[in-house]
Design goal:
This protein has helices at 4-12, 17-28, 51-66, 85-91, 99-105, 108-119, 127-135, 141-146, 151-158, 185-196, 215-229, 278-282, 303-333, 338-350, 365-376, 421-428; strands at 36-39, 41-42, 45-47, 70-75, 176-177, 182-183, 203-209, 235-241, 249-250, 269-270, 288-292, 380-387, 395-400, 406-411, 432-441, 462-468, 471-477, 490-495. With 518 residues, the chain is an alpha/beta fold.
Length: 518
């Protein structure tokens, strides 16, 4: 299957032939889909916090955050190319992009979205920067938009002639306009971190995963912005990492043979998806870690709800940890009686919603202790869930494993069999959506870091159809960071307000009222 050059290429990526063969075998499986039992709903897997609970949890969290236990982890490796998909499409056409062309030659939905973009161009936070860079080359953006001539505007938005937004990470795009400045997502995440990660010394810990191609540019930008905000007394401790080549996966052709690039016959590898970032999360030396996507930020006027629920989720995690750690210390010491067992079984059943084997009650003390310890001594994640508003992505479900046990999981649509009407019906009946608003507890009751790679469902991969230079291929994504990579964590789902989830997937999303500063 592999020649000498293949073996060298595999080794250089930090992979082994055994790992590559294992990846190829995934493509040959007929059924790698999850089995949904039912969606998680309020009262059945999703908890709603009362106001008095929130106040208590915020107080508990604040105490722990001041001790320096908290950091924020932001996956920020993605480019903004998808965000400007329609603009890229039009700019790549070798024609003059004007009103007549838009009205007569493009599909209605593309024309409609572009019309919204052009008519509202002054509302984008990056408009002033765009106008200034065009002016340097004697181009008047107001004249061009008024005349319905858009080719130059597209070029100056997307290419190195101007802002170069078509080639930058999403985190470097100006999202929000303020009275005296505009902010990128990177800067908005710094502002957030300053509110809910700071310790008693006003130190805020935040970790960004970045693309090696843009690492220097990103670090320069964040260094400049962090220095500005540190004038208020905050001290940022910022760290970075990149997705490792060893987390790339091999692509295969339609016959499940290794896909080779036509020009050189080289094996073709693709990024392993956001599940590849588990290695990064595992290496940050954290304790309580907030996980949030780069594009889910709002202006200052709407941040208070975000702050409130971040602290409430953090407090819920701390409260859960405290209870679990007490149980684990008892189990570890061996000083445990029947009443303790009943209390622990009740907690696992009612709080963690983990089902107990039927024969466990008649098991020996040693067997009961071992089972309890295995279920309690795991990483913890408390996940915010918003009501489903039709956004694409994952949601909370009860998933049935091969051994018939049922657990709460965050599931993406690609993990559900598209040919099964029953499974698709369960998928579409979800009441809530995963906004990637997660707080993680990654240390055990003795203060040691968990090895997060030991809690992965390695079978929970994604397979998708792609192409390379016009040739079809199949791509493999590793178990998603908040999907299969966290399958064997103790999991809690908490309902959070919709305002805490306002991602920017397409450029026109920035025109939503939540991203505008009146």
């Amino acid at each position: 299957m592999f020649n000498t050059n293949d073996l060298i290429r595999i080794k250089k990526r930090g992979l082994t032939t055994r790992e590559i063969i294992s990846q190829i075998n995934f493509f040959k499986k007929s059924d790698f889909y999850l089995h949904l039992n039912r969606p998680c709903k309020v009262g059945d897997g999703i908890t709603v916090l009362e106001q008095h609970q929130i106040a208590k949890l915020v107080e508990l969290y604040t105490k722990e955050s001041l001790s320096g236990r908290v950091m924020k982890f932001v996956p920020a490796s993605g480019e903004a190319s998808r965000m400007f998909k329609i603009l890229h499409f039009l700019n790549n056409l070798d024609v003059n992009i004007n009103d007549d062309f838009i009205n007569t030659e493009v599909e209605a939905d593309v024309g409609r979205d572009f019309e919204i973009f052009v008519k509202s161009i002054k509302k984008f936070a990056f408009y002033d920067a765009l106008k200034a860079v065009m002016k340097k080359n004697n181009l008047d953006i107001d004249h061009l938009t008024g005349a319905g001539e858009y080719k130059k505007i597209l070029e100056y938005i997307l290419t190195p002639k101007g802002l170069n937004y078509g080639n930058l990470p999403k985190g470097l795009i100006e999202f929000h306009k303020y009275s005296s400045c505009s902010r990128t997502p990177f800067e908005e995440h710094l502002v957030e971190a300053a509110e809910y990660t700071k310790d008693q010394n006003n130190q805020c810990r935040i970790h960004f995963t970045v693309s090696p191609d843009y690492a220097l540019l990103i670090k320069e930008h964040i260094n400049e912005k962090s220095k500005f905000h540190e004038k208020s007394g905050i001290n940022f401790k910022i760290t970075y990492s990149s997705q490792q080549p060893s987390t790339d996966t091999i692509a295969v052709d339609e016959q499940n043979n290794p896909f080779r690039e036509a020009a050189y016959g080289k094996l073709f590898f693709r990024p392993g998806g956001h599940g590849a970032l588990l290695n990064n999360l595992n290496s940050v030396n954290g304790d309580i870690i907030f996980l949030k996507n780069i594009d889910n930020v709002v202006p200052d006027r709407l941040k208070q709800n975000t702050f409130l629920y971040k602290k409430a989720l953090g407090g819920f995690l701390v409260e859960l940890q405290n209870k679990i750690f007490i149980f684990l210390r008892k189990l570890s010491s061996g000083d445990i009686d029947q009443q303790n067992f009943e209390e622990m079984f009740d907690f696992i059943k009612k709080c963690l919603l983990i089902s107990m084997p039927n024969d466990l009650k008649s098991a020996s003390k040693k067997e009961k202790s071992a089972w309890l310890f295995s279920k309690l001594n795991r990483p913890i994640r408390v996940c915010g869930m918003v009501k489903n508003t039709g956004e694409p992505g994952g949601g909370p479900f009860w998933v049935e494993d091969k051994d018939k046990t049922i657990s709460r999981q965050i599931v993406e649509s690609a993990q559900v069999n598209p040919e099964s009407k029953t499974q698709q019906s369960i998928l579409s009946s979800a009441t809530h959506f995963n906004p990637v608003d997660i707080v993680c507890g990654v240390r055990d009751f003795q203060g040691n870091q968990f090895d997060l790679k030991k809690n992965v469902d390695n079978e929970a991969v994604f397979i998708s159809n792609k192409s390379k230079n016009g040739k079809p291929l199949k791509a493999l994504e590793l178990p998603g960071l908040w999907n299969g990579a966290m399958s064997f964590w103790n999991t809690v789902f908490i309902e959070v307000p919709e305002i805490t989830f306002k991602p920017v997937k397409a450029v026109n999303d920035l025109l939503r009222s939540e991203h505008q500063n009146p």
